[in-house]
Amino acid sequence: MNPANVDLAAIARQEMIDRGFSPDFSPAVERQLETIRATPGAGLRDLTALLWSSIDNDDSRDLDQIEWAERVPAGIRVLVGVADVDSAVPKGTPIDAHACHDTTTVYAGVRVFPMLPERLSTDLTSLSENGDRAAIVIEMTVAADGSVSGGSTYPARVRNRAQLTYNGVGPWLEGHAAAPAKVAASGALAAQLKLQNEASQALREARHKLGALTFDRLETQAVVVDGQVRDVVARGHNRASQLIEDFMIAANEVMARTLRAAGVSSIRRVVKDPERWPRIMELAEACGQKLPPSPDAAALNAFLTRRREADPTHFPDLSLAVLKLMGPGEYAVMHPGETGLEHFALAAHDYTHSTAPNRRFADLVTQRLLKALGAHPPYSDDELEAIARNCTLKEDAARKVQRDMNKRLAAVALASRVGQIFRAVVTGVTPKGVFVRSLDPPVEGRLMRGEAGLDVGDRLRVKLLATDPARGFIDFGRVS
Fold first, then answer.
1. pTM
2. Counting Cβ atoms within 10 Å, is residue 320 exposed (0-12), middle (13-18) or buried (19+)?
3. Which one in 28, 130, 276, 461 has a CA-CA gap of 20 to 30 Å to 325?
4. pLDDT 10s digits, 165-214
5. Residue 366 to residues 314, 378, 387, 392: CA-CA distances in angstroms?
6. Strand bridging mode 148-165 / 52-56
7. In this model, does residue 261 exceed pLDDT 80?
8. Strands (E), 218-301
């Protein structure tokens, strides 16, 4: 089949339907959308004078999070502003019902299927540059040792002064490139970002000492030109993406502790002990190191850190294998007085999702729980349980849509490379077969020959045997 004849956008929409999503918004949603305005309500704390900025992907328009920091005697005071989506989308309305059903924005390569109508998520509630917006501000003080104190949350009026990108800010913070234009034009903004980076690195170091895991993750991104897939490339992480991740994690922990202290039920983000710890132990032994017989985040992170320093070239392979062996996260309800819902990968005892309400329904629910403190809770425990189950199911479904579409995009991009040899790592061993991921480009496919005796994390060389863009099949064969 000629790859040019494959309608990837139509396939993506059908994938969404097959996985239980509603890719189209109802007329009721469109009618409600016409009544929504971007102007923040009265009575909010006015923080528009602060030099807020955002950092995201080059093409991101659904901006959920902005940041600002200042040095104080106790360390660095950090403010994270999160889009107040609840102020525009009340519970029980048509838009809310759609978001409750789909629970997440799905990025399908050739098309984005937003949880909220685009005019809302990329405009009216997006923290876009130079627009006044309502936000929930999460405030904390980061000490030199990375400890966090003084966590508080409150509504405010904010204004994003500089919409920046990972690709622009990251290399500059790392000293590899000149400052992006907006940063070069403002000494105050440059100083602000360097201060945020200082706080970020302190947070990251403190988490790693507690056992938060160190990974180098490569994400696949299709290069699409005039609607045609030209290539598949790896999108890595840099200092700017780490900064946003560090602030996001800290803000989510503050939010979780706030809800726990208030004695209300809330939705938590949970990553349980690794499902296949014995196999992780085997990978460590293959590198000449030992892990304890029971899951231990600190020991695992120490191993990962040593491997990153000893073999940075192959560390992404190891990262991918360990991530696969750990299993996915899930949402769960924490009731007042309850403990034990932890996030193994982050070494966090109090963790929720709250910083992406334009893109995740769980975050919007958390926002409503926060705003209702001291009043009647917006959700019963039974409602929260149902929401947590659906968010987990839809997150898994979204991963499958994205995985299948990434395979189709890759099949189109690799159609002309059949017969070539690639380095690869085993990512899955299932009753349906053995799956591998080539490393350059980072593409996953099925191993059609030579699969005997392999397990997750094994490295090998593979030959591309065939591609089927319509079905997203990429077939490899093992070579000696």
1. 0.87
2. buried
3. 461
4. 999 999 999 999 999 999 999 999 999 999 999 999 999 998 878 777 66
5. 39, 10, 11, 15
6. parallel
7. yes
8. 219-225, 228-235, 266-270
